[in-house]
Amino acid sequence: MRPSRVTRNDEASYIRAMRKRHPTPDSGTRFVPGRSASGLPQDFEVWFQEHRNAVYRYIRFRVATREVAEDVTSEVFLKALRSLHRYDASRASPRTWLLRIARNAVTDHLRALKRRGSLHVSLDRVPDLVADVPSQEERLIREERIQRLLNGSQTLRKADQEILSLRYGSGLDNREIAEHLEISNNAVAVRLHRALARLKAAVDRNDIEQMMWDDDR
Amino acid sequence: MIDRSDSRDFVVPSEFSALDAELSSIHYEERPSFAPELEAELLREWRTVRSERHWPVRQLVAAGIVGLFLGGLGVPSARAALVRLADLMRTPVQESPVPATQPVVPALHAEVPSTVDAEPVKPTPPRVTPPEGAIPESTRQGSEVTFPELRDRAKIEKAIRDNYPMDLQTHGIGGTVRLLLWVDSLGAVDVANVGKASGVPELDRAAVQVAPSFEFVPARRYGKAVGTWVEFDVRFRPRWSGEEGSGIPNGSATNRPRPPDLQVTDPGGHVPS
User: CB-based contact (8 Å) between B83 and chain A?
Assistant: First the structure.
């Protein structure tokens, strides 16, 4: 299988052939020859590289600040590492497994915050969620809008928050969400539609309350 | 109108298209050193987890051996067998060669030379002594374990200099970034992480950005090119007062900063004289 004269193209086709020979539940898993001499288990190292972004974004969509998102993400991967021996590839793909740990970690975090009464996302905590824009004014407008969207999503039920985080946080498509939640594509479409409707209502309601409050001042 | 048929992706109803666009436009900016810091933390945790897991097994095995030994001493025939076993272990036996365990690749500490003009010193990777009972070298083809070596040191020095942020040079800020590089079997850098940060995030970022341009002669194990992790130190050191002591770079009419000072050490950690 291995060509005698190795070029970069040959390496790529070798890796493709190895993936075909050793399919994994998560088709995005990269084949890494050799052991991870950095010390981490090889599979975990690959999952960390491939799914860290999706996990981070999923969490960031649900929590108030970047710092909190980093803390919760660290917690997720530490938990995953400690329970790596219990992972069963036949039951869930690595990404699904990690996102489930993330969901539980976020739930625990939000529950603790609720006890302290501080779920509100403030305006100065969303600059990391706005891409570079030409003007400062436009940046402020976008930050305000994102702040309202995130605050609105905090008021939704957990299932709505979950599906919105998977879609707009982790960036999963319909099929991937269906696989993760173990429901049909159709059910995903229905849930997304309802979640968006509730989010829109919540944001509009908050906007109206804000306007009335501004008028009263 | 919702698309009720099974579809590959969710078709957003028109009344929510603006909301969908806003949510999709959320941009998630991560702190550049977050991933390397997290990876280092995971590594520390893994080492703790592994040592905790080994302990009960070791204790059980030790208890079993002691129990067997003490039990054996109590029975005369078993005692005699133990004595014979001890005699047997003392005399060397020609066993079939045991394949060497996979050697742990030690870190290759390679930094770039201290002065641009100096002859770059090529770090020699340490030889790995195969354990006893391993297949004799003469019977293995290309048995030596070799580590990745830089192909073009000058090119890498130039790339590092070009990536040294100018504002940090201007302010005299430097540091050493220890990178963890996955060098694949073709000698290309596939993954670059910060193993030990310099304390200056911009330097860490610069080092990680320039790492993919490094080219190595790949590691070889028993004659076969393999991928491996490599620790690689990149040191950024601004030089304001030149060696000439004038404070002004040679041949320069203006007070421009000189190229960064880059220093090499061999893998043993000694700076060559």
Answer: no
What's the pLDDT tens digit per position in B184-218?
Answer: 888 888 888 888 888 888 888 888 888 888 888 98
Confidence class for position A33, pLDDT limits 50, 70, 90: very low
B68 CA: distance to closest CA in chain A (Å): 31
Burial of A35 (0-12, 13-18, 19+ CB in 10 A): middle
**Residues facing residue B216 across a β-bridge:** B150
Contact B195, B179 (CB under 8 A): yes
- The answer to whether the CB atoms of B28 and A128 lie below 8 A apart is yes
Contacts of A115 (CB under 8 A, 6+ apart): none
Q: What are phi and psi of B235, to 5 degrees?
A: -110, 125
Residue of higher predicted confidence among B182 and B74: B182
How many residues are there in chain B?
A: 273
Residue contact B46–A74, C-beta within 8 A: no
Residue B106 contacts residue B267 (beta carbons within 8 Å): yes
Q: Which residue do the tokens 């996979």 mark? A: B102
Q: Cβ(B13)–Cβ(A193) under 8 Å?
A: yes
**Beta-bridge partner residues of B221:** B145, B224
Contacting residues of B for A200, CB less than 8 Å apart = 15-16, 19
pLDDT of amino acid B69? 77
Are the beta carbons of B147 and B108 closer than 8 angstroms?
Answer: yes
CA–CA distance, A156 with A161 (Å, rounded to integer): 6
Backbone angles phi, psi at B193, to 5 degrees: -125, 160
